[in-house]
Structure formats: structure tokens, C-alpha cells
Task: structure prediction
Amino acid sequence: MSHKHPVTTPRKSATFDDYTLSEIRRAAATGIYDIRGSGTKRKVPHFDDLLFLGASMSRYPLEGYREKCETSVTLGTRFAKKPIELKIPITIAGMSFGSLSGPAKEALGRGATLAGTSTTTGDGGMTEEERGHSETLVYQYLPSRYGMNPRDLKRADAIEIVIGQGAKPGGGGMLLGQKISDRVAHMRNLPKGIDQRSACRHPDWTGPDDLEIKIQELREITDWEKPIFIKVGGARPYYDVALAVKAGADVIVLDGMQGGTAATQEVFIEHVGQPTLACIRPAVKALQDMGMHRKVQLIVSGGIRNGADVAKALALGADAVSIGTAALVAIGDNDPKWEEDYNALGTTAGAYDDWHEGRDPAGITTQDADLMKRVDPIAAGRRLANYLKVMTLEAQTIARACGKNHVHNLEPEDLCALNIEAAAMAGVPLAGTSWIPGQGGF
Amino acid sequence: MPVFDLATTELRALNASLHALDKNGENAEFEVINPRGAHAVAVGIDAPVDVHIKGSVGYYCAGMNETANITVHGHAGPGVAENMMSGKVVIKGDASQYAGATAHGGLLVIEGNASSRCGISMKGIDIVVKGNIGHMSAFMAQSGNLVVLGDAGDALGDSLYEARLFVRGKVKSLGADCIKKDMRPEHIELLGKLLSDAGITDVKPEEFTRYGSARQLYNFNIDNADAY
Result:
């Protein structure tokens, strides 16, 4: 007669989970750190942890089908002779030609223009596709200065000086050789097929005092017409914003750790920088302390996905938001219709992040002439415009429910938080209480 | 010839007047007096004009220059001729850090010494320095030529790409992936032309040593990790 003892269920370590084990094996086999695109994939406190209270006895809602709720935003009112006027408070973030294909850049320009908003260049310079199809184009001024020239500077609608980005505050970039086509190599003035390193620091200034002089130069070159943005990653938002104001920014772009990158070390993406939610209130506090809130506009990016996220960012004090990853998804990134191709690359739709390898089945993060044909810039641009309109309608719906006739009238008092972490980061009460944890300094 | 006295005239008026010049017009001539270390003097020009600056300038003089010939009869602060596209800039005195940074074209002549990071990230400019240059010069230099009649400081040409470096004096140390290379006939010819363009007649190209990229860091290799 056999006898079996009860056995315990096989139990995997929470510390050494499947992903961690696979990474150890990968590192051991290759001897090189993992590089990938996109932003953090870990779960961090986010806009989902906030709720709007809505109107009630003490607040009057606006009628959704009768009463207007404005969404326009003007960027660059501090010094620029020609501020940017946008119909919606959602812009398209900087993404490079080189990292993205020409048709993808064109689609972003078309979509943004249809929706009445701006798009942004990236490392690698301005392409004709992008300038031609973008009514309002922000020109990034990056440490590498790849493709940087005064002609493009003068035909931009605004200049964005990039100090850092949320995926990698303190890090430069790398465009690996397999994505360096003849055209990309020519634009960047480097040989074809070599890895192109993008510096982490600007080559001709150091620190905020120098930056003030650099901004003076850019304004002189462009006859004080263009709004000057400063983009920072979510590192020390209170002080970074204060110093950006001091350096003379018209607009500050603040990118939290959910913000994407074309290619960076996984360890950098996941372990450096703060979540977007944690960055907004300190940034707004800095502007308020300097008497510059709404005078220097704040654009928040990193993990914006829908109109609720837009409304929450604005309620916390932002003037606008910016989307990158979500815009790529709208134009076709990680679309399940290419599942077989994703499987062939050892991944699945929704998880594909080897953007640096240039084999993107969706034809977006590639320079492969055949793959990029999968992006129809007109249809993809239409999808992006549709998505931007939906986000805007959603934000308006929430704003009206809170009794606001402009999305900028949303305020922290319209919010509560679902957990202590989000309450502390957003500076709003924990739901059901009047408790705001963490008050007393950042 | 218009004369702008920066002691009594706003910098904006000078740059606006320079920007108003017709890029296809006749060659113009401007004089700037009393610059007194002002920043962003004569920046963003895109027209044929000779600009004579009588005195020393601050940061970014001649920044992003196209076409113009700009002469500073004094010293220049950081970032002189940064991102220049074409034209010629001559500094009669010394230049501070980042001279000719990221510049795509044109000729920058520094008759005195240049400080650190001269020609950083240069993308096609020709730079001729009659004196010495400081440390980390030609860092990540992509293309163009850097000619130094004197000595170079530490870490010359660190992580450089395809730029050519010609040094007549001593090099304190070479940066990562920068090596000494042979002077072939085409380099002698090129250097002769650069010296001539800079108005230098008393120095021979054969007196220089050429440095360039070993091209060992062009594609990431874990075995080179110590070099980064």
C-alpha cells in the first residue's frame, strides 16, 4: 500500500521572480547590460491612484451638451514675441528621426496638426516630412547637436532645450549602428553603421548660469520670436524648475520616469528618476513660490494615456501635457495585428521594446525601407488625431463634472487619492479623510 | 560703414541690423566698438558682411554664423563660433572654452591660445589655433580639421570620430580611441591649404603630427568597457 505525504505547491521567490532569473541568465550569457526602449515598466503610484470628486451640493456642474469648456493653451507668454497657440492642452513629445522612421514622424505631424496641437523634433535634426506636415513644430536643442543648424532653428515655432528626460535623468543616448541608414548618417554627420552616442551634457555650457547666457544667444539668433522651452527629467523637480525659471525659460517640460526613450539601459530606466505623479506638485510649488505659475507654462509628460490623466495633471497645476508612447501606440506601435512578427522576435504585441534594433514589425522604430512602408502616414495621422480628440473630450467631460468652464480651472481641491503614497505625492487628501500625508516639505 | 557702440546701443539693435542684411546682397561692413565682454555679439548672421569687433567679447560671439566674416580684435569668451555653418571668424587674442563647438563648417582662426574643449563635437568646421589648446579638445569630434601650432593639453581627441587633428607641438596625453597617424601626401596638401587660408606662411605642414580615431569604440564591445 503506497502512502503519499501532502506536498507543498512549488513556490517561486518574490525576490528572484521569473523576469529577474531570466535577466541574470541573459547577463551571464552576453556580458552586456540590457538595452531597450520605452519607459519604466514597474508599477509606480500614478494618476490611476487619484479620483475626481465631481460636483455636489457645494459645486455646480456644467451641462455637457450646452455649456462650453475651453481647452486652448498658449505657450511662451513670458518673453517670446510669437507664443504658440494650441487648441488642446496635449502636445506630442520629442522623438527623433533616426529612432523613428520618416513615415512615423510624418504621421505624428499630421495627427498633431489635425488636432490643433504641436509636435516636436528629437535628436537627429528636423526632417522635411515633419516640418512640412506640422503646423506647429518644436525644435529640440540637444547635447549632441546632431543635425542642429540655424536654418531649422529659425523655421521652428519654438525651441526646446533638452537637459534631461524622465526615462534617464542624467543619461545620454545611443542609436545603435543597425539603425544608421545613409540618410540618418548624413543628417548626423557620422559614418554609416556605427553606434552614435548622444552626449549627456551640452558641449558649450555648464550649469544654470551658463544656460541663461545660452538662452540669450538663442533668443538673439531668432530675434526673440520663439518660445524657449527647457525640458528636464523627473529628478529634483522643485529646484530644477526654479533654476529653469531663473535661466529664462518661457515653458518648462517635466518628464517623469514613465516617459519613454528610444534606447537606454534597463537598469537606468527602472532605477533613476521619480514617477510623474511625484514631480508635479513640487514643480508647481516652485513656480508659485516665484510668482511664475501660469506665466511660465508647465508641460507634464510621462505615462499620460487618456483624458483622465490629462485632467489630473492639469488639476495638479500643469498647463499642458505631452504624450510620446501613447502617440506611438495610436499610430500603430505594438499592434496585435503583427503578432506573428513579434513572436518571431521572441516577444509579443504590447511587450515589444527592442526599439534600438530597428526591426520593429509596426514600421515605426526602424529605418528599414520595407518595414517602414507598414506606416501609412495619412491613416496613422488620422488615428492620432482621433485619439487626441477623445482625450480632449474626456478631459472636458471631467472638467464640466467639476463645474469648470476651462480645463485649466481644475484644481487639487477637485481630487482625492486612493492610497497614502499617491496622496502624499499629489498633495491631495486620502479618500474619505482630510489627511494629506507628507505635508511639511518636499 | 555702420558703427555700433555697445556702450550706448543695445545688443538687440546690432543683431537685428545684421539679420536684416540681404543674404544675396552686396558685401556689407559693420564695426562694433565697446563690446566690453557682451555675450551673443554678431550671432545668427546669414549674409555676406565683414564685422569688425574692436574689443573683447563674452560668450557665444559669432554663434551659428553663416557666410559672414567676423574679426574680434580682442579676446573671446566661451563658445565662440559655436555651431558655425560657414564663413570665417578670426580671434586676434585668446579664446575661452568650447571654441568652435559643434560647428558644421567655415573657418575659425584663433591667433592666441584656446582653452579646454576647443572643437568639442565639431561637425565639419576647420579650426586653426596659433597658440596652445587646453584639455579635452576635440572631444567626440565628428568631422573637420583642428590645427594647432602650439601644444595640446590632456586627453586630446577623446572618443573622436572622423575629425583630423594636426598638432605641431607636444600633446600632453591622448584621449580614449585617439591615436597618432601617418601624414600622407593628401594630409600635407590639406594642411598647407588650411594654413594658407588662416594666413600663416612661416610654418610648414611637415612640422605637424596627425592624430585621429583608432575606430575601436565605433561599435559597443563589452571588452572595451574599461575605455568608457
Summary: Chain B is about 10% helix and 25% strand. The interface with chain A takes residues 11-12, 15-16, 19, 39-40, 43-44, 46, 58-60, 63-64, 66, 78-79, 82-83, 85, 97-98, 101-102, 104, 117, 120-121, 123-124, 139-140, 142-143, 159, 161-162, 218-220, 222 of chain B (CB under 8 Å). The radius of gyration of chain B is 18 Å. Residues 185-197 of chain B form the longest helix (13 residues).
